[in-house]
């Protein structure tokens, strides 16, 4: 099929409002928007400003009403607990109404914030949809974050209720969530009124009288009473959720998502980008704690009337590198979406892809990769073993849906390995030099998106318009700064090469080295430090911390290194994968005192490096090289 991409993109560019008002027809509105865009509202404008709708209604109720009630909406597949369960759209509706009734009973009102700190269990999805149903604003916090990170989020959004579980189940280890939640509430200045706790059979949590409520008991009670909870009619611009993501400081940014524009963009992407049809099985192998999970485990597939898979397991080790193939065969997955790191892990355990032979993957139409750069080697390996199109696409928490990719739904364009292909409708992407001037084709620069951002993208940060302006819009007036660097070639293909800030990508998880430095520096024996991302064969990057100790510290440096590793795990969480801390005498700096992180990274990765002309003392780079010897092998 010839691709209709060029025509579609040109159509959007010629009439953006016409394009999005057409796309809005895929959504059921309680009040159809008369206006598509209002450039005077919000930080850079707002989409569908006078429309009224409800995201839960569009994800669940309307499908039941339209005859999809008996179709599977959600398949829960959990190799770590040995459980599999399927919920029809009708069953999801019942469960969601149950949670919504419990929240209403706890006094949760439209606009109140609810934190969801849960593992990959169906109740987490029901909780998200229940919030959407009553107009509460959810903020899902990834389970791999520590108490301190959870506390920051409780304080920032002033959560009225926290929904959590007794534990998460990681391969070989039960992660007790409740003590982390209790510690977070202890640390937080703002105290949530109630916690709804899902007791899992793997570990029972102690409950605090007066504050904690048993999730299952509460839901069963309201369902027995037969409570019906209607969907609240919400303004399209009212918030659906806040998702915190790493910024350049220890303070995470609360990315805000609205109801109307978000649905319009996701519904468009499901059909025209992912080529996923209603009734088909769509599997995003991610976690609901990340934006991929929000958009393509929960909201996108359900808006589309697809069946979504909620997988509580890993690509390897649960039980082996054939786990993904089993899920594809067993549930008839048509479209798979995951991060390249998952395929690097599978390939490491099964280099020839031999386990695939044991499964029937004929249902699979395509594999989509995002979350980090898809290195051509991994991408080509996936193509060879799966024999379906493997599509790299680029986006971020802030955008909420793909900014660039090869649109399967519109017809694929020729592939260039290493490129996520072309900008999608809604995104006019430019590469700018540091002064904000467009660079020539092929030249590296800052990747920026011309304002206004399309529907689905963040309208602002939660309660922090000024931070949004200064972090994302101020540097290049008229553009949104993505903080990614790259280039566009002569054919209009985009290449994403690196971040322009301190963010690193560890196993597809976005983490701030600045935040890790804050933790390292808080150790009483550390005078100064630098954390950099170094290459890792499976995770893409992992952090490495270089520590300069206070003069006069006589304790064993290996002991301090272990303490710093434990401190980062304790303050940020295991997800940071911070396992390498090295004491050094000095850090390499420019004469103006800037730490030469880029050069340190090249040394660690075994890449060629040049002595920076501005270096203060060249001998320090040799010290770094010898400190790394025996501690880290370049990939
Ligand atoms: N709750 C508690 N702890 C968690 C957790 C959760 N929900 N998720 C991860 N962790 C812990 C892990 O147990 C691990 O702890 P450890 O240091 O004690 O081993 C640590 O956080 C790092 O986890 P992870 O990044 O998952 O690394 P891993 O070594 O366990 O697995 C991969 C590596 C590549 C298999 C894994 O990252 C993966 O499956 N990635 C798939 C892609 C993906 O999910 N991307 C997200 C964005 S699309
Ligand atoms: P997150 O907000 O966690 O989704 O992370 C977004 C960041 O991940 C982007 O800004 C990029 O730096 C990186 N990223 C995501 N997808 C890709 C991709 N396909 N290619 C290169 N980098 C990517």
TrEMBL record:
<protein>
    <submittedName>
        <fullName>Propionyl-CoA synthetase</fullName>
    </submittedName>
</protein>
<feature type="domain" description="AMP-dependent synthetase/ligase">
    <location>
        <begin position="63"/>
        <end position="450"/>
    </location>
</feature>
<dbReference type="InterPro" id="IPR000873">
    <property type="entry name" value="AMP-dep_synth/lig_dom"/>
</dbReference>
<feature type="domain" description="AMP-binding enzyme C-terminal">
    <location>
        <begin position="516"/>
        <end position="594"/>
    </location>
</feature>
<dbReference type="Pfam" id="PF00501">
    <property type="entry name" value="AMP-binding"/>
</dbReference>
<keyword id="KW-0479">Metal-binding</keyword>
<dbReference type="InterPro" id="IPR025110">
    <property type="entry name" value="AMP-bd_C"/>
</dbReference>
<dbReference type="InterPro" id="IPR042099">
    <property type="entry name" value="ANL_N_sf"/>
</dbReference>
<dbReference type="InterPro" id="IPR032387">
    <property type="entry name" value="ACAS_N"/>
</dbReference>
<dbReference type="InterPro" id="IPR045851">
    <property type="entry name" value="AMP-bd_C_sf"/>
</dbReference>
<dbReference type="Pfam" id="PF13193">
    <property type="entry name" value="AMP-binding_C"/>
</dbReference>
<dbReference type="Pfam" id="PF16177">
    <property type="entry name" value="ACAS_N"/>
</dbReference>
<feature type="domain" description="Acetyl-coenzyme A synthetase N-terminal">
    <location>
        <begin position="5"/>
        <end position="59"/>
    </location>
</feature>
<comment type="similarity">
    <text>Belongs to the ATP-dependent AMP-binding enzyme family.</text>
</comment>
<dbReference type="InterPro" id="IPR020845">
    <property type="entry name" value="AMP-binding_CS"/>
</dbReference>
């Amino acid at each position: 099929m010839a691709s209709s991409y060029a025509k579609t993109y040109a159509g959007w560019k010629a009439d953006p409002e016409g394009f999005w008002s057409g796309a809005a027809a895929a959504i059921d509105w309680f009040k159809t928007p008369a206006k598509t865009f209002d450039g005077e509202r919000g930080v850079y404008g707002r989409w569908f400003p006078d429309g009224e709708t409800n995201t839960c209604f569009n994800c669940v109720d309307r499908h039941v009403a339209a005859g999809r009630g008996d179709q599977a909406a959600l398949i829960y597949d959990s190799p770590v607990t040995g459980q599999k369960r399927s919920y029809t759209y009708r069953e999801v509706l019942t469960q969601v109404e149950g949670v919504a009734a419990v929240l209403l009973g706890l006094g949760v009102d439209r606009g109140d914030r609810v934190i969801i700190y849960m593992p990959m269990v169906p109740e987490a999805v029901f909780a998200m949809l229940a919030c959407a149903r009553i107009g509460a604003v959810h903020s899902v916090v990834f389970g791999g974050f520590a108490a301190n990170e959870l506390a920051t989020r409780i304080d920032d959004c002033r959560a009225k209720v926290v929904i959590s579980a007794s534990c998460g189940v990681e391969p070989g280890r039960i992660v007790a969530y409740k003590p982390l939640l209790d510690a977070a509430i202890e640390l937080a200045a703002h105290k949530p009124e109630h916690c709804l706790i899902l007791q899992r059979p793997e570990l029972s949590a102690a409950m605090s009288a007066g504050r904690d409520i048993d999730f299952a008991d509460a839901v069963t009670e309201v369902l027995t009473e037969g409570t019906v909870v209607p969907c609240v009619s919400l303004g399209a611009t009212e918030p659906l959720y806040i998702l915190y993501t790493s910024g350049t400081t220890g303070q995470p940014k609360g990315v805000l998502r609205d109801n109307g524009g978000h649905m319009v963009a996701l519904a468009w992407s499901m059909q025209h980008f992912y080529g996923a049809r209603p009734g088909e099985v769509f599997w995003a192998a991610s976690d609901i704690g990340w934006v991929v999970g929000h958009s393509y485990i929960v909201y996108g597939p359900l808006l589309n009337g697809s069946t979504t898979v909620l997988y509580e397991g890993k690509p390897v080790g649960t039980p082996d590198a054939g786990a993904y193939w089993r899920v594809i065969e067993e549930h008839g997955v048509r479209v798979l979406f995951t991060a390249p790191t998952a395929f690097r892990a599978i390939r490491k355990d099964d280099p020839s892809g031999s386990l695939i032979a044991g499964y029937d993957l004929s249902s699979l139409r395509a594999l989509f990769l995002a979350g980090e750069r898809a290195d051509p080697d991994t991408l080509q390996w996936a193509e060879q073993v799966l024999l379906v199109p493997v599509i790299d696409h680029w986006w971020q928490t802030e955008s909420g849906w793909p900014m660039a990719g090869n649109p399967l739904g519109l017809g694929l364009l020729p592939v260039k390995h290493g490129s996520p292909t072309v900008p999608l409708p809604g995104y006019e992407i430019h590469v700018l030099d540091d002064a904000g001037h467009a660079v020539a084709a092929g030249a590296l620069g800052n990747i920026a998106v011309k304002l206004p951002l399309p529907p689905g993208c963040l309208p602002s940060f939660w309660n922090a318009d000024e931070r949004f302006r200064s972090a994302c819009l101020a540097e290049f007036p008229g553009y949104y700064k993505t903080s990614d660097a790259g280039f566009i070639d002569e054919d209009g293909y985009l290449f994403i090469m690196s971040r322009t800030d301190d963010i690193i990508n560890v196993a597809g998880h976005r983490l701030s080295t600045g935040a890790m430095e804050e933790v390292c520096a808080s150790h009483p024996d550390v005078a100064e430090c630098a954390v950099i991302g170094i290459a890792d064969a499976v995770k893409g990057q992992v952090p490495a911390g270089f520590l300069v100790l206070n003069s006069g510290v006589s304790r064993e440096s290996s002991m301090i290194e272990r303490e710093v590793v434990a401190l980062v795990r304790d303050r940020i969480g295991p997800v940071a994968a911070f396992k390498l801390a090295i004491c050094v005498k000095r850090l390499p700096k420019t004469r103006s005192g800037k730490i030469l992180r880029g050069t340190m990274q090249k040394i660690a990765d075994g890449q060629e490096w040049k002595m920076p002309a501005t270096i203060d003392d060249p001998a320090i780079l040799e010290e770094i090289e010898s400190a790394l010897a025996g501690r880290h092998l370049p990939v």
